[in-house]
Design a protein that fits this description.
globular; Deoxyribonuclease I, Chain A; six-stranded mixed sheet
């Protein structure tokens, strides 16, 4: 069974962040859950893979754009997958990263839309003040008037509640006209719902955009999908084919 699925409109860009909690063995389910409207940019945290393993992972229709993997502590990495036909450049910021405290990878899109995509992760046990300081250093390094920053990831701080840490995070981001745009729960456990995955943009530059949860049933994270309209990525025509091989053996294993 073959489904021919095309990406979102070429007049918009879609960015999806997924806390995958182990990417190995989940790529097929991830692609199926996004069908038929595949995002242009796929950011993932907690991949639990080393860099050479990430390059060996096959995410149908995408290639690994950039990644950061832990040097000492095991079981985490952040990465960004992009379409095969999208041009980009990597921005190396490894000196600003520290295991569990601040893990980040960055790429810049080559298009008329001067956008820099930043994927971040902070472990729940990480030092929050160190995270803020390093986040400030990274944004300061990247920040330019003509450059649009999109920061997405899992910061493990509930932005649905009013607390000191959230106010400190907001203060750092507002220095660069960045603000959180996700206002729905992104993780549910039992009777508890929190918003620990977020996207931060300059809402004065991104006037025509929408953000919504993508319910894929993979994990307890219903992570955000951002669509920015009136953007020309200049992509070539490209299709993703979802193939399901149906045999007597696959039916028995279903």
């Amino acid at each position: 069974m073959v489904n021919d699925n095309q990406r979102s409109s070429s007049n918009s860009i879609t960015i999806f962040h997924q806390n995958i909690c182990g990417l190995k063995g989940k790529t097929g389910e991830l692609i199926s859950s996004m069908s038929p409207h595949f995002p242009h940019i796929l950011c993932s945290s907690e991949c639990h893979l080393k860099k050479f393993e990430l390059y060996q992972i096959n995410v149908n229709g995408y290639r690994l754009g950039t990644a950061h993997c832990r040097q000492v502590v095991k079981r985490c990495s952040v990465c960004i997958f992009v379409p095969e036909n999208l041009s980009y450049t990597n921005i190396v910021l490894g000196k600003h990263c520290k295991d569990q405290e601040k893990e980040v990878c960055v790429l810049k899109l080559k298009s008329t839309f001067f956008n820099c995509i930043v994927a971040v992760y902070r472990a729940p046990t990480g030092n929050f003040n160190l995270f803020l300081n390093r986040l400030d250093d990274i944004i300061k390094t990247l920040h330019k008037v003509e450059l649009n920053l999109t920061i997405c990831g899992d910061v493990n701080e509930d932005c649905l509640t009013d607390n000191d840490k959230r106010r400190q995070l907001d203060a750092v981001l507002l220095t660069y006209n960045l603000s959180a745009i996700v206002y729905f729960p992104t993780r549910s456990q039992g009777y508890s719902s929190t918003e620990i995955d977020n996207i931060f943009i300059d809402t004065y530059k991104f006037i025509n955009c929408t953000v919504s949860p993508l319910y894929n049933g993979l994990l307890d994270h219903d992570d955000p999908l951002l669509e920015i309209c009136n953007v020309n990525l200049q992509l070539q025509n490209y299709h993703i084919f979802t193939i399901r091989n149906i045999t007597i053996y696959s039916i028995e294993d279903f």
